[in-house]
Here is the input.
Amino acid sequence: MTSPLSTATAQPEILTGPALWPAQAHVPSVLGRQIVIDRGDGSFVTTVDGQRLYDGTAGLWHANVGHAHPALAQAAFEQMNRLEQYHVFARFANDKALALAERLADIAPIDDPKVIFGSGGSDAIDVACKLARRHWQREGRPEKTIIVSREHAYHGLHAFGTSIAGLPFNREGLGTESLVPETALVSADDPELLARQIAEIGPERIAAIVTEPIQGTGGMNPPAPGYLEAISTICRENDILLIVDEVITGFGRTGTMFASERYGLEPDLVTFAKGVTSGYLPLGGVFVHPRIWQPFYVDSPDTPVLRFGSTYAGHATAAAVALRHLDLLDEERLLPRVVELEALLRDELDTLAARRPGVAEVRVAGFLGGVQLVPEIANDRVTDALVDLGYITRPLRGNTLQISPPFVTSDDEVRAFVRAIDEVVASEE
Ligand code: PLP
Here is the structure.
């Protein structure tokens, strides 16, 4: 017989599992169901159990040139045999970091930029936000500290990214509204509301507005008409820096090297990561406009210092791979290919939306697509069923599926992917 006391103290079972703590997951729901990838080839990956899966998301929007490209393996091998890494602190640098910065400066969506390197998108955002505050402090306007971002925004999970996230669950349980003080959220798509909100916050207090050109994790949302223009005007008229987060869109995802070109943006700071190496090695960074960097380069003992950098900033092997990767984008003509893929994806998804009542809306900008399902059909169930059929997609906010295959995919693969989505959605209708 169970005593009342033992019933009262019964505790839920603690699950065990692999030592690896799964990122961004409700752990009990994923334990025992992990999809463990063992190898990749082009647009496909294969699990340890031998299931070959079409990588319809390019991992986390990173594997643009496809998986296991021998040219990048070779570049890493050669560099590691020569010099794995040397830091870029103070007087030191390594030749690959210097060469990569020059090469990036030529293609950046800012003329004559300086390039700050880090290890990924989250630390690029941290540096960009710190630099924005530092800029206004140095300009004698220390009251300009607020970093404004958009609802549904995702800017990584370091301290600034967590604090400016427009996805509130990323701040859950941290003991405070925002890890970093003085941040504010504005409407993601309404230019008039945006203008009113900026007026309420007080433009004289705002250091920078941060925006993804196309919101990714927040649901694959291309900019609403007039919205990015409104942000640009507000920034220009109120001495507010414009930080464009091109972590997803940079390096060709929208058919131009950067989405800033596609949308006519003139940023002060641009963050990049993922596509700079197609994720072959962790690398990210920030392009800095001359009006921001020049004061730090003045020949005077009073010139301020920007405190940034990490052991792996400007990592020599990551830089060597990035240099080779930039060649590949040209050699394999991948940017023009993205333009073709955008048109194909738009046709395919429009047809899907017209055929399937379970599809509420489709959105395409560049080779980035979102399939929003009606509320009765859960996107995570569809994602699971697609894996069973051999296709990887990913549930995003707003009951949306992420569509962003590698640039090296074929037309037939894209068509087969959309057919598979059609089949699964039909079975859920
Ligand atoms: N910014 C954007 C727009 C992103 O989509 C991401 C990651 O998905 C990040 C920043 C963070 O990049 P990372 O995961 O490399 O830290």
Summary: The longest helix spans residues 334-355.
